[in-house]
Amino acid sequence: MANPTPNPAPGFVKNPAYRVAVLKESRRVRVTIAGIVVADSTDALRLEEAGHEPVHYLPEKDVRLDLLRPTAHKTHCPYKGDAAYWSLDVGSGDESRSVENAVWAYPKPYDEMAQLVGYYAFYRNRVDRIEVG
Predict the structure, then answer these.
(1) If you average pLDDT over residues 46-55, what whole number do you get?
(2) Which of 46, 10, 2 is nearest to 28 (CA)?
(3) With pLDDT > 90 as the criterion, what percentage of the chain qualifies?
(4) Which of 1, 41, 44, 98 is deepest in the core (most CB within 10 A)?
């Protein structure tokens, strides 16, 4: 099998000292919104990036994908790559709640961040709680 085409992060090429670390989170991470657990994992990753708060990425197997709705929103990071976004739709009837672009992932990250494939992150200010412990 041929090696895939290299896809190095241009951010690291220009600024090799910039720090982005992807670490295995040893604690359980649980995300809730409107009283519904939308993600719960003991296999999360913690991304630590210079100048930013740590962000937890949870594996697809531990995320309620049935509550995610893809959106057209996209962003680009010169260190991680192109991010795709999802909105969260929870509850029903009068108890329903929809939060736009609350979740993101890097489906095809740069080589240096390849371990993020299949992991999702949640904006702290768009969900009710992200518990780590």
Answers:
(1) 96
(2) 46
(3) 86
(4) 44
Q: By CB neighbour count within 10 A (0-12 exposed, 13-18 middle, 19+ buried), where does 8 fall?
A: exposed
Q: For residue 124, report the phi and psi dihedrals to the nearest 5 degrees.
A: -60, -35
- In degrees to the nearest 10, what's the CA dihedral of 64, 57, 122, 105? -80
Three-class DSSP category at 109: coil
* Domains along the chain with CATH numbers: 18-132 (2.170.150.40)
pLDDT in tens, 66-110: 999 999 999 999 999 999 999 999 987 777 889 999 999 999 999
Tokens of 26: 């040893």
